[in-house]
């Protein structure tokens, strides 16, 4: 009888050990489910940002994590303002998450500055080495890893595609918000290196409001120039409808880094699948929740890029799409 009792207790103990191995976060906090915190660089109501957060949540669902059933999910929407991001980062960390997801350079910095203990998975970043967030892509040394969209040399590719679309173009400005896009100077530096090859004069257009965007478009109109809308860290989403309408009205050609804007009326975009990076981020979060050490998860760059051309926008601007672009692009009618 005593032997049977010991055997039963041993089976119960081994069962608990197995559960702790599969779900170490659960083992650390038996009194609550795992807690995943998300700090976006966007404001609530940004439809593109909400779509991407939904993709992240679906990625977790596909891996067996059901929000409010076997894990807790909290999403914060501070927008692109750095002070607001820092405040919400502190509040989110005070709530005790087990893993964090950040969606911009600004929110990643805010979380990194607030905790060196909780694992942080970032998605959609521009060159995290160039911006000083990580020092080693293959084996991150801190509590940060994740997925990056672009190296800064991508600005040359955007300019080249814009020049292909508008061969007579001789001036282009890189549009960015200096607060939400602290990496913009790196893109601008790379763009200047392409000026002679492309026959373009390149300038930077620093904007912080819708009025300043309108002024930059006005300048492009007077100069007969075009715009490259850089990855924006959350600022551009709420300004995009106004900007795209004004670009069409003023007949200013522009290329975007994010597909969403070309699909919703912008002339063209070239970039990686940002939504897929949110799904990939869910994969890293899942692995961390199941016990993988964050330092064993390398930083990954996007490897597939897509060109999208909005034919209605091209026609409105009086542009004929070159055949070499037609062959490579997804066309939005």
Automatic annotation (TrEMBL):
Put simply, this protein is called: Putative ABC transport system substrate-binding protein
Q: Coiled-coil region(s) at which residues?
A: none
Q: Which InterPro entries match?
A: ABC_transpt-TYRBP-like
Which Pfam families does the record associate with it?
ABC_sub_bind
Give the superkingdom in one word: Bacteria
């Amino acid at each position: 009888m005593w032997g049977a009792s010991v055997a039963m207790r041993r089976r119960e103990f081994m069962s608990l050990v197995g559960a702790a191995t599969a779900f170490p976060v659960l083992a650390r906090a038996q009194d609550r489910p795992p807690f995943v915190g998300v700090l976006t660089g966007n404001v609530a109501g940004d439809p593109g940002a909400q779509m991407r957060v939904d993709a992240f949540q679906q990625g977790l669902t596909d891996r067996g994590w059901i929000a409010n059933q076997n894990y807790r999910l909290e999403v914060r929407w501070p927008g692109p303002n750095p002070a607001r991001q820092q405040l919400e980062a502190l509040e989110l960390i005070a709530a005790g998450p087990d893993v964090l997801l950040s969606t911009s350079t600004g929110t990643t910095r805010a979380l990194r500055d607030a905790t060196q203990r909780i694992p942080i998975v970032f998605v959609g970043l521009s060159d995290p080495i160039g911006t000083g967030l990580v020092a080693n892509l293959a084996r991150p040394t801190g509590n940060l890893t994740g997925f990056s969209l672009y190296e800064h040399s991508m600005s040359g590719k955007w300019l080249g595609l814009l020049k292909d679309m508008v061969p007579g173009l001789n001036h282009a400005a890189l549009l960015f918000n200096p607060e939400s896009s602290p990496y913009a100077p790196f893109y601008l530096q790379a763009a200047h290196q392409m000026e002679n090859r492309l026959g373009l004069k390149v300038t930077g257009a620093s904007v912080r409001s819708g009025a300043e965007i309108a002024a930059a478009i006005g300048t492009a109109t007077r100069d007969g120039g075009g715009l490259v809308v850089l990855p924006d860290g959350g600022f551009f989403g709420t300004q995009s409808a106004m900007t795209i309408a004004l670009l069409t009205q003023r007949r200013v050609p522009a290329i975007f880094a994010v597909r969403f804007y070309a699909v919703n009326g912008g002339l063209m975009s070239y970039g990686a699948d940002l939504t897929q990076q949110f799904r990939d981020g869910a994969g890293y979060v899942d692995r961390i929740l199941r016990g993988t050490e964050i330092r064993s998860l390398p930083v990954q760059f996007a490897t597939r890029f897509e060109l999208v051309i909005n034919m209605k926008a091209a026609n409105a601007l009086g542009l004929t799409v070159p055949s070499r672009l037609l062959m490579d692009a997804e066309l939005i009618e």
